[in-house]
Specification:
14 helices; about 230 residues; mainly alpha; about 75% helix; 2 domains
């Protein structure tokens, strides 16, 4: 486990940097809403939903009903359904870790699990679990740190959330350089751009995900021939 954890740590350094600043931003916002480090820890430990946690801060004290919160949560995080589909069988083979792997499948963790290759001598199950666990710990650490600093030093959080955009740019670049074919990346760019134009910035994510998945399913054989889907080999 130690070897897998060490290897996973080096692979997750970009996510650590992104989650540190994003988690701090969330912790600061939560502290400004009247909730201290304890609630930042509890929220990040049990909710661990990134963007939904930011939205949740705005719900606090807003009197929004439970049903409305559930609908909002589904609309924001429905893309995770597509993430889970591609890993159902893989996670089932991990035994007791199965439920945690589902729970911890964030955007960044999913991207890293798709692009990571296990080194010889490293147990793949332990390696994948280490990635998910470390990412979760990074988010918790950043959230608590932000809440603690918010109690000590006044902060202006304007622009801090750009760290998420930068993080995705790093992950995308790494995948582009490491994969043999760029069909999935180009498909995502095209589908995302078209859906953005048609549906607008507030509603394009779900249609873009659906259209991308459909196109990739149609082109799966072509991608497999070029060695894109290592898990299918």
């Amino acid at each position: 486990m130690r070897k897998a954890l060490k290897f996973a740590f080096f692979r997750t350094i970009p996510i650590f940097c992104g989650y540190l600043f994003l988690g701090m931003a969330f912790g600061l916002l939560l502290q400004q809403a009247g909730f201290g480090p304890f609630w930042a820890f509890i929220s990040s430990l049990f909710i661990y939903a990134g963007s939904m946690q930011f939205v949740l801060v705005s719900f606090i004290g807003g009197g929004l009903g439970v049903i409305s919160i559930i609908i909002m949560t589904l609309s924001i995080n429905c893309r995770h359904i597509f993430y889970g589909i591609s890993f159902i069988e893989r996670f089932k083979s991990m035994g007791k870790k199965y439920l945690y792997m589902i729970f911890s499948l964030t955007d960044e963790t999913y991207s890293l699990l798709c692009s990571s290759e296990t080194l010889p001598g490293v147990d793949e199950d332990k390696y994948l679990f280490s990635i998910a666990l470390l990412d979760h710990c990074y988010w918790i650490f950043g959230s608590v740190l932000g809440a603690v600093l918010g109690e000590i030093i006044p902060f202006d959080t304007t622009g801090v959330d750009f760290a998420m955009t930068a993080l995705f740019a790093v992950i995308f670049t790494e995948q582009w350089l490491s994969f043999k074919t760029h069909i999935p990346a180009v498909t995502g760019i095209i589908c995302g751009t078209v859906c953005l134009i048609i549906f607008g910035a507030d509603k394009f994510i779900l249609p873009a995900m659906i259209s991308s998945v459909c196109v990739l399913m149609i082109m799966k054989n072509i991608i497999k021939e070029r060695g894109e889907f290592e898990n299918d080999k």
